[in-house]
Amino acid sequence: MRMMPADQSQSLKEDVVSMETWLQGFLKASCMYGQLPKFQDGDLTLYQSNPILRHLDRSLRLYGKDQREVALVDVANNGMEDLCCKYVTLIYTNYEMSKENCVKELPGHLKPFETLLSQNQGGQAFIVGTRSLSLTTTCWTCC
Ligand SMILES: N[C@@H](CCC(=O)N[C@@H](CS)C(=O)NCC(=O)O)C(=O)O
């Protein structure tokens, strides 16, 4: 969410919510699913990371030029979600005990992305497609 607009030289206004603010409860109560991220694009308010990413994809013209590319973007996105889940567990549960194993397994976890990358212009381009456009958004995330 942060990286996509930055990569495309687009602005993203980010409100980082501290734990102290979050625990006050008023923001949680105002969020559709009681969770962050919350994403604002004009009068459109979105929740849930993947729909937000897909909205950014479409707004930045990065969601593939045809059905095939869209499907490949979805594959990469869901693969990334699985990878993130592993590291969220590492970070928020038993970091010291799990980190060695995570580092050892990382090359295997990155392999599918390398495979996808290698299938597009011999790894000389992006995972999907060749690349972009404009928008101003606000994003609430937790630190
Ligand atoms: N399915 C949601 C999950 C969002 C989520 O897990 N948000 C966490 C922070 S990363 C949260 O708001 N936790 C605080 C809470 O549940 O009170 C998504 O993909 O955006």
Automatic annotation (TrEMBL):
Q: Domain GST N-terminal spans what residues?
A: 1-64
Per its record, the protein catalyses: prostaglandin J2 + glutathione = prostaglandin J2-S-(R)-glutathione; 11(S)-hydroxy-14(S),15(S)-epoxy-(5Z,8Z,12E)-eicosatrienoate + glutathione = (11S,15S)-dihydroxy-14(R)-S-glutathionyl-(5Z,8Z,12E)-eicosatrienoate; prostaglandin J2 + glutathione = prostaglandin J2-S-(S)-glutathione; prostaglandin A2 + glutathione = prostaglandin A2-S-(S)-glutathione
EC number of the protein: 2.5.1.18
Query: Can you name this protein?
Result: Glutathione S-transferase P
Its source organism is Pteropus alecto (Black flying fox)
> Which GO molecular-function terms appear in the entry?
glutathione transferase activity
Q: What does this protein do?
A: Conjugation of reduced glutathione to a wide number of exogenous and endogenous hydrophobic electrophiles. Involved in the formation of glutathione conjugates of both prostaglandin A2 (PGA2) and prostaglandin J2 (PGJ2). Participates in the formation of novel hepoxilin regioisomers. Negatively regulates CDK5 activity via p25/p35 translocation to prevent neurodegeneration.
- Assembly with partners or alone: Homodimer. Interacts with CDK5.
Concerning PROSITE patterns, the annotation shows: GST_NTER
Read off the InterPro entries from this record.
Glutathione-S-Trfase_C_sf (IPR036282), Glutathione_S-Trfase_N (IPR004045), GST_pi (IPR003082), GST_superfamily (IPR050213), Thioredoxin-like_sf (IPR036249)
Highest taxon of the lineage: Eukaryota
SUPFAM superfamilies given for it? GST C-terminal domain-like, Thioredoxin-like
Q: Does the record bear Ribosomal protein in its keywords?
A: no
Its cellular-component GO annotations read: cytosol
Keywords associated with the record: Transferase
Q: Which GO terms describe its biological process?
A: glutathione metabolic process
